[in-house]
Amino acid sequence: MSQPDADTLNSRTETDPDKGSLTDQAYARLEELIVTLQLPPGEVLSESSLARQLNIGRTPIREALQRLAREGLIVILPRKGILVSDINPRSQLLVLEVRRELERLLSRSGAARRTEAQRERFLEIAEGMEQAAASNDDIAFMRLDNALNQLISEAAHNEYAARAMRLLAGLSRRYWYTHYKVAADMPLCARLHAEQARAIASGDPDRAAAASDRLIDYTETFTRSTVEAV
User: Fold this and answer.
1) Contact criterion met (CB below 8 Å) for 8 and 33
2) Residue 230: per-residue pLDDT
3) Are 100 and 216 in contact (CB under 8 A)?
4) What's the pLDDT tens digit per position in 115-140?
5) What is the predicted pLDDT for the residue at 90?
6) Helix 22-35 to helix 47-54 angle, to the nearest 10 degrees?
7) Mean pLDDT within 3-22
8) Cβ atoms < 10 Å from Cβ of 96
9) Phi and psi (nearest 5°) for 71?
10) How much is the pLDDT for 15?
């Protein structure tokens, strides 16, 4: 199978303004701004200013903000304002406790239930992650990581586990982005994500679960190193 080039991979992971509802578009764009620290912790948000910035109406913005609040990326204070939530390193270790079990379950189920089209997409994402790491393109890597999370949840066909994972994914990605330049080994992280994607593509649940555990093992080591530095 011929490999897609980097431009093709990146175009599939960027927010596409022609796809999804206005609320979905607003959510995707705001989530990326928060996760990549373009809207940093403590930033005060305004529905009207965000609507102007993203050129999306206030109602979709409001609905997207409510979703982000459920995921812990923002805090809505009645009659006071909307804040991007703080980052707590020790809380991130608790996130990983839950994420380990959920990600293993979703990876196993994804390997058992993925379609042929999803298998091809897993392989594309694996290749794209390695390209992003080689070029040190952190935004492309973050988008591919997000795409992999979504694809694993779709392939697993377990809406309850997928719903729980959505509450953790953004927090995990933002934490990684905050500290990766100092504490992370991006090529290793990319390889572990690629191994997970290829293991799920292989259709072997045990291999997929083991790859998921190796990724979380690394993520936990990375997180503990940042906690100890605080």
Assistant:
1) no
2) 57
3) yes
4) 999 999 999 999 999 999 888 888 89
5) 84
6) 100
7) 49
8) 20
9) -90, 0
10) 41
Length of the chain: 230
Amino acid (one-letter) located at 147: A
Cβ neighbours of 205 (radius 10 Å)? 18
Calpha distance 187→218 (Å, rounded): 12
Spatial separation of the C-alpha atoms in residues 170 and 159, rounded to whole Å? 18
Domains and CATH numbers, the chain: 12-84 (1.10.10.10), 88-229 (1.20.120.530)
Per-residue pLDDT of 70-87, as tens digits, reads 999 999 998 888 999 999
Q: What mean pLDDT comes out for the span 151-172?
A: 95
Give CA separation, 33 vs 54, 69, 73, 120, 139, in Å.
11, 14, 11, 29, 11
